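Pilot study result, target chain (68 residues):
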Amino acid sequence: MESGRLRLEISKDDSNVGYLYLPTFSVKSEGCVAKLISLHELIKNYKGIPIYLDFDKNDNLVGIEIIG
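Predicted structure:
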C-alpha cells in the first residue's frame, strides 16, 4: 500500500468487517500493530458498533477496524 492515501477494505471473509488504512500506514506497518484501543474503552456508555483504533510502536494511528 502506498503511504499517504486513505483506503477502505472490506474483509473477504465477513462483509460486516471493514478496515480503514490511514495515510500514516505503510508497508512497514502491516502486521505491526503495537496497540489496539476500542471506542468502548474511550467513551463511557458508548453504544455503537465495535470500532478499534490501531497504533504502531510509535503511537501513530495507522488504521481503524469497523465491525458492523
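One observation from the pilot: The chain has one domain: 7-67. A full batch analysis is planned for the follow-on phase.
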